[in-house]
Amino acid sequence: MTYHYDVDAVVLDIEGTTSATGFVVDVLYPYSRSRFGALLSERSGDPDVARAVAQVRELTGDPEADATAVEKTLNAWLDEDRKATPLKTLQGIIWAEGFARGDLVSHFYDDVVPALHAWHAAGLRLYVYSSGSVAAQRAWFSATPQGDLLPLLSGLYDTENAGPKQEAESYRRIAESAGIARDRLLFLSDRPGELDAARAAGWHAVGIRRPGEPYYEQGVGDHAQAGTFDEITVSRSTT
Questions:
Q1: pLDDT tens-digit map of 178-188
Q2: The predicted structure's pLDDT at residue 36
Q3: What is the rounded distance in angstroms from the CA atom of residue 32 to the CA atom of residue 87?
Q4: How many whole angstroms separate alpha carbon 144 and alpha carbon 176?
Q5: What is the pTM of this model?
Q6: How far apart are CA 66 and CA 73, in angstroms?
Q7: What's the maximum distance between 2 C-alpha atoms anywhere in the chain?
Q8: In angstroms, rounded to a whole number, what is the distance separating the alpha carbons of residues 54 and 97?
Q9: How far apart are CA 217 and CA 202, in angstroms?
Q10: Which of 75, 102, 172, 200 is the most buried (most CB within 10 A)?
Q11: Is 80 exceeded by the pLDDT of residue 111?
């Protein structure tokens, strides 16, 4: 089935939607795990690192946690795949440097990049909303096998500048920030809770179900579902 939406913008999840969760878990997570210690010990004075460390201490209720304790917490959260903002912030710093050095190259499903180019050419605005930090998103979209995709994007949102992905208020906040009416936004994600929150905020939402992804068997509830971006057509009304 093909779904058509008349909207002004498409907002994209990353893991399981544009890109394989397995790549993130098998490549990016170990890369960050191996570098947390050095980041915490060598760059404790960096404002972003210091803020993230303070957030870890607050979330764990341990205001005296040293670098070793913080690293242990980060690794535990990584094992749990916990979407903790300070974890994502520090991962983003590490990944951005890895992409810039050429250690890392991002992954996109074959149907995604052509669709993004087509939607952008049609006048649609494209945004990303991911639990990964804005820094990680910027690195991810700039270091792709197809070149730098950042020029296609109008904005990046994460759990720090928008809020938790399963809360409707986060989607209202994005709509207000982007200056787009809620019923003119389409959200694509593989996670039912995120789709529910977007719909509750007045957005259109389509669940992406790709074989092999963690949420494939669970499905997307009562949302429209597509196996690839090819099954979604979007246009922007000129009237």
A1: 999 999 999 99
A2: 98
A3: 10
A4: 30
A5: 0.88
A6: 11
A7: 59
A8: 22
A9: 26
A10: 172
A11: yes
Q: How far is CA 96 from CA 26, 129, 139, 155, 227, in A?
A: 17, 17, 5, 17, 30
Q: What is the DSSP string of the chain?
A: --EEEE-SEEEE--BTTTB-HHHIIIIIHHHHHTTHHHHHHH-TTSHHHHHHHHHHHHHHT-TT--HHHHHHHHHHHHHHT---HHHHHHHHHHHHHHHHHTS------TTHHHHHHHHHHTT-EEEEE-SS-HHHHHHHHHSBTTB--GGGEEEEE-TTTT--TT-HHHHHHHHHHHT--GGGEEEEES-HHHHHHHHHTT-EEEEE--TTSTTTTT--TTSEEESSGGGEEEE----
Q: Does 238 have pLDDT greater than 80?
A: no
- Angle separating helix axes 67-80 and 85-101, nearest 10 degrees: 90
Between CA 205 and CA 197 the distance in angstroms is 9
Average pLDDT over residues 148-155: 98
pLDDT recorded at residue 83: 87
Task: Please give the share of the chain, as a percent, with pLDDT higher than 90.
Answer: 94
Hey, what amino acid is at 216? Y
Q: Is 185:203 a contact under the CB 8 Å cutoff?
A: yes
